[in-house]
Amino acid sequence: MSGGRRLRKPGAAEPSRKRKAPSAAPGGEPAMDVAVGRRIRDLRRDRKLSLETVAAETALSIGFLSQIERGLSSPSLRVLATLADVLGVGIAALFGSSPGGDAASDSVVTRGAQRPELKLWRTGVSKQLLSAAGADNKLNLFLVHLEPGGSTGDELYTHDGEEAGLVLDGEMMLTVDAETWSLKTGDSFRFASRRPHRFSNPSDDAKAVVLWVNCVT
């Protein structure tokens, strides 16, 4: 399985920015990292996959995967996309349950106060799931927030499916294959997720907000 392959990004790398860690779980790790790690572990066990098997499929070390599952490491969006591929799900399956939501009653409608959220706090990217959560969903709608300087990382990555989006506010730099575009409010995009890609917010002081659709094929 070739999901989430790391590829070299064209051009110079962006400087890293230190970000404040969010609230911690009882053990001291950020609560969101613990929740995501637990979800990844549960999906892996449901599929009867060993850490060794997942490590071989993703080219990630067993130690790093173990840290992710225990909430000791905050994975990037690229790493999560890689793991979702190997687990045979869309990235939406890695979200926790809706706050105060009922999965059965919310399968059609998702209330604004009940959106599951995935905050990748180290990279300045957060995703709110606007559609119902579930491992079997093929089409998922997100509201993506990019903090100033937020980025998926310097490396291009790939995963299963197709994606499209609309920039609602701010500016986003999108790289697909060897070409990079600056997208501003009102600009939209669409591409096959197997094409190497990355995205970032080039602003030093303004957040970017993007309505994003992912379809798992």
Describe the overall structure.
Helices cover 20% and strands 25% of the residues. It has 217 residues and is α+β, with helices and mostly antiparallel strands. The strands form 2 sheets. It has a 6-stranded antiparallel sheet with strand order 1-2-3-9-4-7. A 3-stranded antiparallel sheet has the order 6-5-8, with no helix packed on it. Strand 5 (171-176) and strand 6 form a beta hairpin. Residues 1-16 and 98-106 have low confidence and may be disordered.
Structure summary:
This protein is an alpha+beta fold and about 220 residues long.
Structural Rg: 16 Å
Strand element count: 9
Helical content stands at 10-25%
Strand percentage? 15-25%
Question: What's the mean pLDDT score?
Answer: 84
**How are helices and strands ordered from N to C?**
HHHHEEEEEEEEE
Uncertain runs: 1-16, 98-106
Terminal CA distance: 14 Å
Structural class: alpha+beta
Largest sheet: 6 strands, antiparallel
Shape: globular
Strand neighbour order, sheet with most strands: 1-2-3-9-4-7
Number of discrete helical segments: 4
Key terms:
single chain; 217 residues; alpha+beta; six-stranded antiparallel sheet; three-stranded antiparallel sheet; 25% strand; globular
Helices and strands in order, then pairings?
Elements: H1 31-46, H2 51-58, H3 62-69, H4 77-87, E1 117-120, E2 125-129, E3 139-146, E4 162-169, E5 171-176, E6 179-184, E7 188-192, E8 197-200, E9 208-215
Antiparallel strand pairs: 1-2, 2-3, 3-9, 4-7, 4-9, 5-6, 5-8
